[in-house]
Design goal:
Layout: E1 2-7, H1 22-30, E2 40-43, E3 47-49, H2 55-61, E4 71-73, H3 84-87, E5 103-107, H4 109-121, E6 130-134, E7 141-143, E8 146-152, E9 162-168, E10 171-176, H5 184-192, E11 197-203, H6 218-230, E12 234-243, H7 253-262, E13 265-267, E14 273-275
Parallel strand pairs: 3-4, 4-5, 5-6, 10-11, 11-12, 12-13
Antiparallel strand pairs: 1-2, 1-14, 2-3, 7-8, 8-9, 9-10
This protein binds zinc ion (3 copies).
One zinc ion binds near residues 76, 78 and 178.
Length: about 280
């Protein structure tokens, strides 16, 4: 699998859209990988994960060929992961297609509410432009050659959140944000089903701050990594990557990388490609 991070920030971006804090100024000065757009990822250039307001930015500057994407997994309904107004831009007259036009979104019931409203307002279902498939935590489903398993996340309940296990042939990845330390039901599922990961992407919104509920900081990501290893959910060469960052976490990319390396973590940046082979 080819896994790519298109955006890697939390809700307000980094620099924060209206922010003048020390870490936003530092990121602007350092530039490059320290600048982060709202989180989004894609598997094999065709299985999209989340639909943030920066999706268009990723089309313009991140190499995202959105017109050819047919499937999008949604983690939850917070605005940095789901920006329904831009789904409406797929409507007849706004988007012209030369072939099959339907883009299917997958999400929990609570995620479906804003998507379905937009589908109705923009007549997307009637014109076969967009479909929505309701998913249920711990019920695996198939998307083309991928098996996808939604697990429960520890995040604002009203956002009806899940994290995703994605498998293709003998390769398995975990895309785990937004979430705090995983709920017991998710740990139990992983153990019982003997899921073994090749690549693990973890919510590190809080950066260097201690935080384990709703989101995670670096110290909790280390705990999750250790538990995954202890419970046999890893392989010999499993890679771990910190992802989804807030400027409140007190370390820009350049500062976090040496600390992360010491604990065996990669640090995500916009455009980063991971080959899972
Ligand atoms: Zn988020
Ligand atoms: Zn800031
Ligand atoms: Zn969220």
């Amino acid at each position: 699998m080819k896994f790519q991070y298109l955006g890697t920030a939390a809700a307000e971006g980094w620099p924060g859209i209206f922010c003048q804090c020390e870490f936003c100024k530092k990121a602007i000065k350092a530039g490059g990988r320290n600048i982060r757009t709202r989180s989004q990822a894609i598997v094999d250039d065709k299985l999209l994960i989340d639909f943030p307001p920066d999706t268009y930015m990723h089309v313009l500057y991140g190499g995202l060929d959105l017109a050819s994407v047919k499937h999008c997994l949604l983690t939850h309904n917070h605005s940095d992961h789901l920006y329904p107004e831009d789904i409406g831009m797929r409507r007849t007259g706004f988007a012209h297609f030369t072939e099959e036009a339907c883009l299917t979104f997958y999400g929990t019931e609570g995620v479906g509410v804003p998507v379905k409203k937009e589908m109705e307002d923009a007549r997307l279902e009637r014109d076969n432009r967009v479909a929505f498939q309701v998913i249920t935590p711990f019920h695996p489903f198939t998307v083309e050659e991928y098996t996808v398993i939604p697990l429960r996340a520890d995040h604002s309940a009203s956002s009806d959140p899940v994290i995703y296990v994605i498998q293709k042939e003998d390769k398995t990845l975990l895309y785990a944000n937004d979430t705090g330390y995983f709920p017991d039901v998710s740990w139990e599922y992983l153990e019982k089903n003997e899921i073994k990961f090749d690549f693990v992407s973890l919510d590190c919104t809080c950066g260097l701050l201690d935080c384990s509920r709703g989101h995670m900081g670096f110290s909790t990501c280390i705990e999750v990594k250790e538990r995954l290893i202890c419970t046999g959910c890893t392989k010999e060469n499993t890679r771990f990557c910190l992802h989804h960052f807030s400027h409140n976490g007190k370390a820009i990319y350049d500062e976090l990388v040496p600390l992360a390396e010491k604990e065996g973590f990669l640090v995500s940046y916009d455009g980063m490609i991971v080959r899972i082979e």
